Amino acid sequence: MSVLRPLDKQPGLNTATILLVGTEDALLQQLADSMLKEDCASELRVHLARSLPLPSSVDRPRIDLIVFVVNLHSKYSLRNVEESLHYVDATFFLGKAAFLATGAGRESHCSVHRNTIMKLAHTYRSPLFFCDLEIEGFRATMAQRLVRMLQICAGHVPGVSALNLLSLLRSSETLAPEDL
Amino acid sequence: MDETVAEFIKRTILKIPMTEMMTILKAWDFLPENQLQTVNFRQRKESLVQDLVLLCESKRASLRDAALLDIIYTQFHQHQKVWDVFQMSKEPGEDVDLFDMERFKSSFEKILRRALKNVTVSFRDAEENAVWIRIAWGTQYRKPNQYKPVYVVYYSQTPYAFTSFCHLKSNTPLLSQKFETHNSTMPLQETLELDMHMDSRIIHENRIEKERVQRVTQETFGDYPQPRLEFAQYKLETKFKSDFHGGILAERKEPLRCLIKFSSPHLLEALKSLAPAGIADAPLSPLLTCIPNKGMNYFKIRDK
């Protein structure tokens, strides 16, 4: 089964697993480190993958949240994410998937337009975060948000589900990219 | 001034040929100009040396000063020594540390002193980020022998260190070890980051692929830092080729021209890091990897 499904496995006790998908390993690694620094009641696990489908040889827990990391400086990174999206079951996009675009701060280096990534996120009805992962402070803040989001997606926050969170996030985006 | 130091200075100055005497003394900069003026440089060498030594005594020359004079003499006469080259190894994937000369010197000296009781270590900066290190060895019970020192010339921006012949062969591995321990000493923050890489809560799904990329990169570029190159240029001239018969450009007789310029403070290292960083696939295009082999960095690519 090369397609990732959100509910195909039993959850681990108090475990929340996030999958970061992106070509730039160093950035993913740094983000993973920042997330694990956070104080969190849940047991966190971070899986880093270059692309999907994932190698079947690895024994992995249920994935609660997938974050697709695109470096706006690299078309290669965008193309990689676009191709990986085909290996994700549609039900993930009910609040258990998100996009993270890095590198927007250095506009002159961007070869992927903001609108492109915004359109992609809109197509998949998923939240899009802009964060320059290379900058420690921004990365730490992003890591905090992701940890909170992950806990919700794993069902560790009573009364809030991934779908709740998604509709909360979505209501703040009143305009579609086409309208901008 | 210690008798041994006086003797050492005397013997060192005696070695200096008269033609170089002034130059070396000026480079040493221990005896001020005005004092040197008072010395008669036309007298017999033995008398000249005596005068100079007396001057050094009056200025209370220390072993440190004497060692510095020895370094300068050796720098002028480096061609008279036989040098071995050592190349320091770094783990592939290790970052190039920012090099702080002062920190290097102080920690190098500390390390040697900790290892050996009797040792004299002196430094002198030279051109092109090089530092000359003079090491006089002793044993646990004997003072350092100043007449048989070892010289190490270390170019800080390279992995190379040159050493002069060490008559105490047993010390050579110790010396190279000192360089390795120093060079692989990373600032604390980076060491912590390394521990985090081992965090078992982080799983690399594509570990096997990562290892393959590392292997291919290592096969292509080797383990050591690349030669420093700042530019590469590729000129392409090609006729338009199309699958569709009759397009706008299909009839064009003029070849299409394209120019790509790469520039970087360290181009080859940047290319080497492309695949491990996930920015490009491994193996890289041979157009990029052939630069060191061919010794070219300007390429013209034409149709066959």
UniProtKB/TrEMBL annotation, chain A:
Keywords assigned by UniProt, alphabetized: Centromere, Chromosome, Cytoplasm, Kinetochore, Nucleus
Record-annotated membrane-spanning stretches: none
Any single GO CC term annotated in Swiss-Prot or TrEMBL for this entry: nucleus
Signal peptide: none
InterPro entries, per database record: Centromere_Cenp-M, P-loop_NTPase
Cell compartment(s), UniProt: Chromosome, Centromere, Kinetochore; Cytoplasm; Nucleus
UniProt keyword Cytoplasm present: yes
Assembly mode: Component of the CENPA-NAC complex, at least composed of CENPA, CENPC, CENPH, CENPM, CENPN, CENPT and CENPU. The CENPA-NAC complex interacts with the CENPA-CAD complex, composed of CENPI, CENPK, CENPL, CENPO, CENPP, CENPQ, CENPR and CENPS.
One protein family per Pfam: CENP-M
Function: Component of the CENPA-NAC (nucleosome-associated) complex, a complex that plays a central role in assembly of kinetochore proteins, mitotic progression and chromosome segregation. The CENPA-NAC complex recruits the CENPA-CAD (nucleosome distal) complex and may be involved in incorporation of newly synthesized CENPA into centromeres.
Record's protein name: Centromere protein M
UniProtKB/TrEMBL annotation, chain B:
Main subcellular localisation: nucleus
Superkingdom as given in the UniProt entry: Eukaryota
Entry keyword annotation includes Nucleus: yes
Gene Ontology cellular-component terms listed: chromosome, centromeric region; nucleoplasm
BP GO terms, sorted: CENP-A containing chromatin assembly; chromosome segregation
Localization annotation: Chromosome, Centromere; Nucleus
Pfam families xrefs: CENP-N
Keyword vocabulary terms for this entry: Centromere, Chromosome, Nucleus
PANTHER family found in the cross-reference section: CENTROMERE PROTEIN N
Similarity annotation: Belongs to the CENP-N/CHL4 family.
Protein name: Centromere protein N isoform X3
Organism this protein belongs to: Puma concolor (Mountain lion)
Gene name per UniProt: CENPN
